[in-house]
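Internal ticket #5521
Category: modeling
Description: The requester needs a full-assembly model to guide mutagenesis choices. All entity lines are attached below as received. Residue total reported by intake: 597.
Assigned to: D.W.
Attached entities:
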Amino acid sequence: MELSDKIRGFIIENFLFGDAAPLTDDSLSLLDNGIMDSVGVMELVAWLEQEHGLKVADQELVPENFDSVARLASYVQRKKDGGG
Amino acid sequence: MSVHGMLEESARRSPGAILLSHGDQRYSYGDVDARANRLAALLRELGVARGDRVGLLADNGIEYVTGFFGVLKAGGCVVALNSANKAGTQRQLLADSGAVGLVTRVAQVRRDLAEMIDGCAALRFVVADKAAPNWDLPASVRLLVADDVATRSDEGIDLPIDDEDLAAILYTSGSTGTPRGATLTHGNLGANTRQILDYLHLTADDSVLVVLPFHYSFGNSLLLTHVKTGGRLVVENRFAFPQVALDTLGEERCTGFSGVPSTYAILCSKTDFLGRDWPHLRYLTQAGGAMAPALVLRIRDALPERIRLFIMYGQTEGSARLSYLPPERLREKLGSIGIGIPGVSLTVRREDGGECDVGEVGEIVAAGDNIMRGYWNDPEETARVLKNGRLHTGDLGRRDEDGFIFVVDRLKNMIKSGAHRVSSKEIEETILELPGVVEACVIGVPDGLLGEAIEAYVVRRDAHALDEQAVLRHCHAKLAKFKLPRVVHFIEMLPKNSFGKVIKSELKAQRTE
């Protein structure tokens, strides 16, 4: 399964409870569209650390890395490739 | 003085001083006052009269501040709406308050405007920052946008407003599950603003980082205390990314920061808040529920003593603030909500109204000019909490020999999750709408970040009737995000007493076993 599929799946299951309709595309801002709130961000971090074995540094917790499926997928890929 | 009079006085004194910083934008007192005057002029043209309720639905920013003071200047009463609410709840609150209009932003209503105002008989107009093409509003509702406001006069309107005039209705969760509107007058909000300033000693040189919504009584008190002193509000709506918000605190050289327990829990666990040097920071305030003493001490021990830490307690029904723990007594009285703020009498009372002895547990009761007039359109609930002019908080407490009050429990089944007071009944009623559900019970359980997290216990017709996702999906469609249970437990039966009443304490005890 593609990384972005897994991330999309987590968001649909945990923030939208199975209703994929609001997540119209991968570049959609999760925060501005009310899909994810501050508690949601923390859940997402916990999932990334558990499922993908990443350590999310405090300074990486920024909208550029977390605010859309596309940004998340790119961030996780960079981490896996050993980059920041 | 009226609430908007505080803005007008600060604008006269220092028109060029900055009232609001938001990202790269800066808005001066003179600018905000003129914007509010223009909105007020338009609202008067639209027929807003003294005491008319006007809904305000906007995230923190210039539109909220302009909307708030504009409605007051027109003689109206602000009905502050939480943008996290679903459209159905907004409609319920607009209809309940009898709002004649709504001031809002496209970003907050999106496609749902028609649904939000459907059936709101009194509602005649919507003023938005701009129009969205897909709004299909009834012919009886006029839509106006920012351009319509901009052309109005920025001269102030001189209306007779006195202390008894309604200024705001702030909705809060009730024990019955239906939101109740705390009606606050100009006198109430003005009094609480002065009372807070009496112990916080803010000046025009102070600036606070605002991560709490203005529609919430704590956020509203930040707005009013800073406007009164001529200070600056630094709006930061990205607290979901706490490090980003923290960088703003430093970059904007804020002198103050205010949060609820979960704000501090997140800052301490997900940022370098405690490890950084804050040369400009003068004080921290915390309210909105009890913060764990261990966390209070962690913050106190890590930051220099010159940064004063105020632990406070309050209720929307008391405009916002009821008590504070003087920072110099913090370690000595750890776990206490402190004493009544200047101008507020805070006591612990028995059921018969008499004052409790030292150490005796009773209900915490407040009196002062900041106590609301009652709940909007709800004399029954009002009579339950307001007795002889005193506010019965529903919190149980005891006082020590020095008069410091400690909260020990809550009388009502309310859950305090994050900044929110959540009614378990409202969530239970929502779950019970599902056909496969026989019984439902919702409790708050201790949570490191939120104070309390919401968990649901559900008895279903049969195991195939529905699963956790189905329950959560239904709740998500009907309830604001902060009201969603974190977990749904399916059980055979709920623990009940001999009268058939669910014993929530037993569920909580079973959970920790």
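Resolution: model delivered.
Comment from assignee: Helices of chain A lie at 3-14, 38-51, 63-66, 69-80.
Ticket closed.
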